[in-house]
Amino acid sequence: MLAVSNRDPGLSIQDGPEGETKDRDGLLATACGGLELRSPIMPASGTFSHEMDQVLDVAKLGALVLKTTTFGPRAGNPVPRVSETSDGMLNSIGLPGGGFEHFSESTLPKYLHYGSPVVVSISAETVVQFGQMAQALTLPGVAAIEVNVSCPNIEADGKAFAMSKSATASVVAEVRASTNLPIWVKLTPNTGELVDIALASQNSGADAVVIANTILAMGIDAPTQKPTLGNVMGGLSGPAIKPIILRMVYQCASKLEIDVIGCGGIQSGVDVAEYLLAGAAAVQVGTVSFVDPTALVRIEDELVDFCRSQHHSSVRELVGALEIPGHSINTAVNQMDVAP
Ligand SMILES: Cc1cc2nc3c(=O)[nH]c(=O)nc-3n(C[C@H](O)[C@H](O)[C@H](O)COP(=O)(O)O)c2cc1C
Protein backbone atom coordinates (compact mmCIF):
# COMPACT_ATOMS: atom_id res chain seq x y z
CA MET A 1 0.00 0.00 0.00
CA LEU A 2 1.23 3.50 -0.76
CA ALA A 3 2.34 5.52 2.19
CA VAL A 4 0.21 8.59 2.86
CA SER A 5 1.71 11.91 3.85
CA ASN A 6 1.82 12.72 7.54
CA ARG A 7 2.40 16.38 6.74
CA ASP A 8 -0.89 16.85 4.86
CA PRO A 9 -3.42 14.45 6.28
CA GLY A 10 -6.25 16.04 4.26
CA LEU A 11 -6.52 13.44 1.53
CA SER A 12 -5.51 9.84 1.66
CA ILE A 13 -5.76 6.73 -0.42
CA GLN A 14 -8.88 5.96 1.59
CA ASP A 15 -10.60 8.85 -0.17
CA GLY A 16 -10.94 6.53 -3.16
CA PRO A 17 -9.66 6.99 -6.71
CA GLU A 18 -10.90 10.58 -7.01
CA GLY A 19 -9.26 11.57 -3.71
CA GLU A 20 -6.09 9.83 -4.78
CA THR A 21 -6.03 11.78 -8.04
CA LYS A 22 -6.46 15.06 -6.17
CA ASP A 23 -3.75 14.00 -3.74
CA ARG A 24 -1.43 13.24 -6.65
CA ASP A 25 -2.23 16.51 -8.45
CA GLY A 26 -1.59 18.48 -5.27
CA LEU A 27 1.65 16.62 -4.68
CA LEU A 28 3.02 17.35 -8.16
CA ALA A 29 1.76 20.91 -8.68
CA THR A 30 4.47 23.53 -8.57
CA ALA A 31 5.53 26.90 -9.92
CA CYS A 32 8.68 27.57 -11.89
CA GLY A 33 10.12 30.38 -13.97
CA GLY A 34 6.91 32.40 -14.04
CA LEU A 35 4.61 29.45 -14.83
CA GLU A 36 2.25 27.32 -12.80
CA LEU A 37 3.14 23.73 -13.64
CA ARG A 38 1.03 20.59 -13.24
CA SER A 39 4.23 18.68 -12.55
CA PRO A 40 7.92 19.60 -12.20
CA ILE A 41 8.81 17.16 -15.02
CA MET A 42 9.06 18.29 -18.64
CA PRO A 43 10.89 17.11 -21.76
CA ALA A 44 14.25 18.68 -22.62
CA SER A 45 14.45 20.62 -25.88
CA GLY A 46 15.21 18.47 -28.92
CA THR A 47 14.16 15.21 -27.30
CA PHE A 48 10.38 15.42 -27.58
CA SER A 49 7.92 15.57 -30.44
CA HIS A 50 4.16 15.50 -30.80
CA GLU A 51 4.41 11.96 -32.25
CA MET A 52 5.12 10.80 -28.68
CA ASP A 53 1.41 11.32 -27.97
CA GLN A 54 0.98 7.81 -29.36
CA VAL A 55 2.77 6.35 -26.34
CA LEU A 56 2.27 8.85 -23.51
CA ASP A 57 -0.31 11.25 -22.17
CA VAL A 58 1.24 14.56 -23.21
CA ALA A 59 -1.25 16.53 -21.09
CA LYS A 60 0.42 15.03 -18.01
CA LEU A 61 3.71 16.79 -18.67
CA GLY A 62 4.63 19.89 -16.69
CA ALA A 63 5.34 21.81 -19.91
CA LEU A 64 6.25 21.03 -23.50
CA VAL A 65 9.69 22.39 -24.28
CA LEU A 66 10.05 22.33 -28.04
CA LYS A 67 13.12 21.72 -30.16
CA THR A 68 15.20 24.84 -30.65
CA THR A 69 14.16 26.87 -33.64
CA THR A 70 16.69 29.11 -35.38
CA PHE A 71 16.42 32.46 -37.14
CA GLY A 72 16.84 31.11 -40.66
CA PRO A 73 16.73 27.64 -42.22
CA ARG A 74 19.62 25.34 -41.33
CA ALA A 75 20.71 22.06 -42.89
CA GLY A 76 22.24 20.64 -39.71
CA ASN A 77 25.56 18.89 -39.21
CA PRO A 78 27.11 16.02 -41.20
CA VAL A 79 26.05 12.47 -40.31
CA PRO A 80 26.42 10.45 -38.14
CA ARG A 81 24.72 12.92 -35.80
CA VAL A 82 24.39 10.65 -32.77
CA SER A 83 26.44 7.88 -31.23
CA GLU A 84 26.16 5.83 -28.08
CA THR A 85 28.65 5.91 -25.21
CA SER A 86 28.96 3.53 -22.27
CA ASP A 87 26.69 5.67 -20.10
CA GLY A 88 25.03 8.19 -22.37
CA MET A 89 25.01 9.52 -25.91
CA LEU A 90 26.84 11.98 -28.08
CA ASN A 91 24.96 14.24 -30.46
CA SER A 92 25.86 16.86 -32.97
CA ILE A 93 22.57 17.56 -34.67
CA GLY A 94 23.29 21.17 -35.61
CA LEU A 95 19.74 22.51 -35.19
CA PRO A 96 18.35 21.60 -38.62
CA GLY A 97 15.04 23.25 -39.44
CA GLY A 98 13.18 25.73 -41.57
CA GLY A 99 13.72 28.83 -39.42
CA PHE A 100 11.33 30.57 -37.04
CA GLU A 101 8.73 31.65 -39.59
CA HIS A 102 8.28 28.09 -40.79
CA PHE A 103 8.24 27.00 -37.13
CA SER A 104 5.42 29.36 -36.15
CA GLU A 105 3.30 28.43 -39.17
CA SER A 106 3.87 24.68 -39.37
CA THR A 107 5.39 23.27 -36.18
CA LEU A 108 4.02 25.28 -33.26
CA PRO A 109 0.30 24.62 -34.03
CA LYS A 110 0.92 20.88 -33.55
CA TYR A 111 1.68 21.46 -29.85
CA LEU A 112 -0.99 23.94 -28.81
CA HIS A 113 -3.95 21.63 -28.20
CA TYR A 114 -2.58 19.40 -25.43
CA GLY A 115 -3.28 21.79 -22.55
CA SER A 116 0.30 21.74 -21.22
CA PRO A 117 2.18 25.06 -21.27
CA VAL A 118 4.24 25.33 -24.45
CA VAL A 119 7.79 26.64 -24.12
CA VAL A 120 9.40 27.73 -27.37
CA SER A 121 13.20 27.38 -27.59
CA ILE A 122 15.07 29.91 -29.71
CA SER A 123 18.62 30.26 -30.96
CA ALA A 124 20.23 32.87 -33.19
CA GLU A 125 23.56 34.11 -34.44
CA THR A 126 23.23 37.73 -33.29
CA VAL A 127 21.72 39.58 -30.35
CA VAL A 128 19.30 41.42 -32.63
CA GLN A 129 18.07 38.17 -34.19
CA PHE A 130 17.33 36.78 -30.72
CA GLY A 131 15.16 39.83 -30.01
CA GLN A 132 13.34 39.59 -33.35
CA MET A 133 12.57 35.92 -32.76
CA ALA A 134 11.33 36.53 -29.21
CA GLN A 135 9.01 39.24 -30.45
CA ALA A 136 7.71 37.20 -33.39
CA LEU A 137 7.13 34.11 -31.25
CA THR A 138 5.22 35.92 -28.51
CA LEU A 139 2.08 34.29 -29.83
CA PRO A 140 -1.19 33.08 -28.29
CA GLY A 141 -0.60 29.70 -26.67
CA VAL A 142 3.13 30.24 -26.08
CA ALA A 143 3.71 30.20 -22.30
CA ALA A 144 7.44 30.99 -22.11
CA ILE A 145 10.54 31.38 -24.22
CA GLU A 146 13.62 29.26 -23.57
CA VAL A 147 16.72 31.04 -24.86
CA ASN A 148 19.31 28.53 -26.03
CA VAL A 149 22.53 30.51 -25.86
CA SER A 150 24.76 27.53 -26.67
CA CYS A 151 25.25 28.67 -30.25
CA PRO A 152 28.10 30.62 -31.87
CA ASN A 153 28.07 34.40 -31.59
CA ILE A 154 29.08 35.38 -35.13
CA GLU A 155 29.50 39.06 -34.22
CA ALA A 156 32.22 38.23 -31.72
CA ASP A 157 34.74 35.38 -31.70
CA GLY A 158 32.37 32.63 -32.82
CA LYS A 159 32.31 31.15 -29.33
CA ALA A 160 28.90 30.28 -27.92
CA PHE A 161 27.08 33.22 -26.29
CA ALA A 162 26.71 31.02 -23.19
CA MET A 163 30.51 30.95 -22.72
CA SER A 164 30.53 34.67 -21.93
CA LYS A 165 28.85 36.64 -19.15
CA SER A 166 28.54 39.79 -21.24
CA ALA A 167 27.29 38.03 -24.40
CA THR A 168 24.67 36.09 -22.41
CA ALA A 169 23.61 39.27 -20.61
CA SER A 170 23.21 41.11 -23.96
CA VAL A 171 21.02 38.35 -25.39
CA VAL A 172 18.82 38.10 -22.30
CA ALA A 173 18.40 41.88 -22.07
CA GLU A 174 17.41 42.03 -25.77
CA VAL A 175 14.91 39.18 -25.36
CA ARG A 176 13.55 40.83 -22.19
CA ALA A 177 12.94 44.02 -24.15
CA SER A 178 11.19 42.07 -26.92
CA THR A 179 8.63 39.95 -25.05
CA ASN A 180 6.53 40.01 -21.92
CA LEU A 181 6.59 36.21 -21.68
CA PRO A 182 8.65 34.48 -18.99
CA ILE A 183 12.23 33.87 -20.18
CA TRP A 184 14.18 30.72 -19.37
CA VAL A 185 17.87 30.83 -20.27
CA LYS A 186 19.46 27.50 -21.13
CA LEU A 187 23.13 27.61 -20.20
CA THR A 188 26.12 25.55 -21.23
CA PRO A 189 28.09 23.47 -18.72
CA ASN A 190 31.22 24.01 -20.86
CA THR A 191 32.34 27.03 -18.89
CA GLY A 192 34.12 27.50 -15.58
CA GLU A 193 32.04 30.61 -14.96
CA LEU A 194 28.60 29.06 -14.88
CA VAL A 195 27.42 30.68 -11.64
CA ASP A 196 28.49 34.14 -12.84
CA ILE A 197 26.79 33.60 -16.20
CA ALA A 198 23.64 32.42 -14.44
CA LEU A 199 23.74 35.54 -12.26
CA ALA A 200 24.20 37.69 -15.37
CA SER A 201 21.10 36.03 -16.86
CA GLN A 202 19.13 36.79 -13.71
CA ASN A 203 20.30 40.40 -13.62
CA SER A 204 19.33 40.88 -17.27
CA GLY A 205 15.73 39.79 -16.73
CA ALA A 206 15.58 35.99 -16.90
CA ASP A 207 12.81 34.24 -14.95
CA ALA A 208 14.72 30.95 -14.75
CA VAL A 209 17.94 29.33 -15.88
CA VAL A 210 18.08 25.81 -17.29
CA ILE A 211 21.19 23.97 -16.12
CA ALA A 212 22.29 22.67 -18.55
CA ASN A 213 22.89 21.84 -22.18
CA THR A 214 25.22 18.98 -23.18
CA ILE A 215 28.93 18.68 -22.27
CA LEU A 216 31.39 19.02 -25.16
CA ALA A 217 32.83 15.58 -25.88
CA MET A 218 33.89 13.20 -28.62
CA GLY A 219 34.01 9.52 -29.46
CA ILE A 220 36.46 7.51 -31.59
CA ASP A 221 35.84 4.23 -33.36
CA ALA A 222 39.28 2.61 -33.15
CA PRO A 223 38.89 -0.07 -35.86
CA THR A 224 37.92 2.48 -38.51
CA GLN A 225 40.17 5.17 -37.00
CA LYS A 226 37.31 7.64 -37.36
CA PRO A 227 35.38 9.90 -35.00
CA THR A 228 31.94 8.51 -34.14
CA LEU A 229 30.30 11.83 -35.07
CA GLY A 230 30.40 13.46 -38.50
CA ASN A 231 31.15 16.78 -36.79
CA VAL A 232 34.00 15.14 -34.78
CA MET A 233 32.91 16.78 -31.52
CA GLY A 234 29.44 16.93 -30.02
CA GLY A 235 27.49 17.06 -26.80
CA LEU A 236 27.42 14.32 -24.17
CA SER A 237 24.09 13.68 -22.45
CA GLY A 238 22.50 10.95 -20.35
CA PRO A 239 23.41 9.34 -17.01
CA ALA A 240 27.15 10.02 -17.46
CA ILE A 241 26.62 13.74 -16.91
CA LYS A 242 24.20 13.64 -13.98
CA PRO A 243 26.67 14.11 -11.08
CA ILE A 244 28.32 17.04 -12.90
CA ILE A 245 25.06 18.83 -13.68
CA LEU A 246 23.68 18.09 -10.22
CA ARG A 247 26.73 19.88 -8.77
CA MET A 248 26.13 22.83 -11.10
CA VAL A 249 22.46 23.05 -10.15
CA TYR A 250 23.44 23.05 -6.49
CA GLN A 251 26.00 25.80 -7.01
CA CYS A 252 23.62 27.99 -9.05
CA ALA A 253 20.57 27.44 -6.86
CA SER A 254 22.60 28.45 -3.83
CA LYS A 255 23.40 31.83 -5.38
CA LEU A 256 20.36 32.73 -7.52
CA GLU A 257 17.01 34.22 -6.58
CA ILE A 258 15.31 33.07 -9.79
CA ASP A 259 14.38 29.44 -10.36
CA VAL A 260 16.84 26.83 -11.57
CA ILE A 261 15.63 24.04 -13.85
CA GLY A 262 17.82 20.94 -13.66
CA CYS A 263 18.57 18.99 -16.84
CA GLY A 264 21.09 16.21 -17.23
CA GLY A 265 20.98 12.44 -17.05
CA ILE A 266 17.64 12.00 -15.32
CA GLN A 267 16.35 8.43 -15.65
CA SER A 268 14.14 7.92 -12.60
CA GLY A 269 11.89 9.62 -10.08
CA VAL A 270 14.67 9.44 -7.50
CA ASP A 271 16.96 11.30 -9.92
CA VAL A 272 14.31 14.06 -10.05
CA ALA A 273 14.19 14.14 -6.24
CA GLU A 274 17.98 14.56 -6.18
CA TYR A 275 17.76 17.57 -8.50
CA LEU A 276 14.98 19.13 -6.41
CA LEU A 277 17.02 18.60 -3.23
CA ALA A 278 19.98 20.30 -4.93
CA GLY A 279 17.72 23.33 -5.43
CA ALA A 280 16.03 22.86 -8.81
CA ALA A 281 12.42 24.05 -8.94
CA ALA A 282 11.69 21.72 -11.88
CA VAL A 283 13.53 19.39 -14.24
CA GLN A 284 13.86 18.52 -17.90
CA VAL A 285 14.37 14.99 -19.15
CA GLY A 286 16.03 14.16 -22.46
CA THR A 287 18.17 11.18 -23.44
CA VAL A 288 16.23 8.54 -21.51
CA SER A 289 13.23 9.15 -23.81
CA PHE A 290 15.26 7.69 -26.70
CA VAL A 291 15.64 4.48 -24.69
CA ASP A 292 12.12 4.46 -23.26
CA PRO A 293 9.65 6.80 -25.01
CA THR A 294 7.25 6.51 -22.04
CA ALA A 295 9.95 7.53 -19.55
CA LEU A 296 8.49 10.97 -18.78
CA VAL A 297 5.30 9.47 -17.38
CA ARG A 298 7.08 6.57 -15.64
CA ILE A 299 9.44 9.04 -13.95
CA GLU A 300 6.48 11.08 -12.74
CA ASP A 301 4.91 7.94 -11.21
CA GLU A 302 8.21 7.14 -9.52
CA LEU A 303 8.48 10.68 -8.14
CA VAL A 304 5.00 10.36 -6.66
CA ASP A 305 5.95 7.03 -5.06
CA PHE A 306 9.17 8.53 -3.70
CA CYS A 307 7.37 11.52 -2.16
CA ARG A 308 4.73 9.33 -0.58
CA SER A 309 7.31 6.93 0.84
CA GLN A 310 9.16 9.90 2.34
CA HIS A 311 5.94 11.45 3.69
CA HIS A 312 6.06 14.54 1.49
CA SER A 313 2.71 15.95 0.42
CA SER A 314 4.25 18.32 -2.15
CA VAL A 315 7.31 18.17 -4.41
CA ARG A 316 7.95 21.74 -3.29
CA GLU A 317 9.05 20.41 0.10
CA LEU A 318 12.07 18.86 -1.60
CA VAL A 319 13.32 22.00 -3.36
CA GLY A 320 16.66 23.02 -1.85
CA ALA A 321 16.07 20.73 1.15
CA LEU A 322 19.49 19.07 0.94
CA GLU A 323 20.90 18.57 4.43
CA ILE A 324 24.67 18.70 4.79
CA PRO A 325 25.73 17.83 8.32
CA GLY A 326 28.16 20.39 9.68
CA HIS A 327 28.17 22.47 6.49
CA SER A 328 26.53 25.76 5.69
CA ILE A 329 25.48 26.08 2.04
CA ASN A 330 28.22 28.65 1.39
CA THR A 331 30.94 26.41 2.77
CA ALA A 332 29.84 23.59 0.54
CA VAL A 333 29.55 25.75 -2.58
CA ASN A 334 33.04 27.10 -2.04
CA GLN A 335 34.43 23.57 -1.94
CA MET A 336 34.51 23.97 -5.71
CA ASP A 337 37.68 26.02 -5.19
CA VAL A 338 39.40 23.20 -3.28
CA ALA A 339 41.34 20.67 -5.31
CA PRO A 340 40.13 17.11 -4.70
C1 LIG B 1 19.33 14.34 -29.79
C2 LIG B 1 19.39 15.58 -28.93
C3 LIG B 1 18.93 16.79 -29.44
C4 LIG B 1 18.99 17.94 -28.66
N1 LIG B 1 18.53 19.11 -29.17
C5 LIG B 1 18.52 20.22 -28.39
C6 LIG B 1 17.96 21.44 -28.86
O1 LIG B 1 17.42 21.53 -29.98
N2 LIG B 1 18.01 22.52 -28.03
C7 LIG B 1 18.56 22.47 -26.78
O2 LIG B 1 18.56 23.48 -26.06
N3 LIG B 1 19.07 21.31 -26.29
C8 LIG B 1 19.06 20.20 -27.06
N4 LIG B 1 19.55 19.02 -26.57
C9 LIG B 1 20.07 18.98 -25.19
C10 LIG B 1 18.99 18.49 -24.22
O3 LIG B 1 17.88 19.37 -24.22
C11 LIG B 1 19.53 18.38 -22.79
O4 LIG B 1 19.98 19.64 -22.38
C12 LIG B 1 20.67 17.38 -22.66
O5 LIG B 1 20.46 16.27 -23.49
C13 LIG B 1 20.88 16.90 -21.22
O6 LIG B 1 19.76 16.23 -20.73
P1 LIG B 1 19.66 14.60 -20.75
O7 LIG B 1 20.92 14.09 -20.16
O8 LIG B 1 18.43 14.29 -19.95
O9 LIG B 1 19.52 14.23 -22.17
C14 LIG B 1 19.50 17.87 -27.33
C15 LIG B 1 19.94 16.63 -26.83
C16 LIG B 1 19.89 15.50 -27.60
C17 LIG B 1 20.37 14.20 -27.00
Descriptive report:
With about 350 residues, the protein is an alpha/beta fold. The protein has one domain: Alpha-Beta Barrel (TIM Barrel), CATH 3.20.20. About 30% of the residues lie in helices and about 20% in strands. The protein contains 10 helices and 17 strands. It has helices at about 15-30, 100-105, 125-135, 165-180, 195-205, 240-255, 270-280, 290, 295-310, 330-335, and strands at about 30, 35, 40-45, 65, 70, 80-85, 90, 120-125, 140-150, 185, 210, 215-220, 220, 225, 235, 260-265, 280-285. The strands form 4 sheets. Strands 3, 4, 5, 8, 9, 10, 11, 16 and 17 form a 9-stranded parallel beta sheet that branches. A hairpin with a 2-residue loop joins strand 1 and strand 2. Helix 4 (about 165-180) runs parallel beside helix 5 (about 195-205), helix 6 runs parallel beside helix 7 and helix 7 (about 270-280) packs across helix 9. Residues about 1-15 have low confidence and may be disordered. Flavin mononucleotide binds near residues 121, 213, 265, 285 and 287.
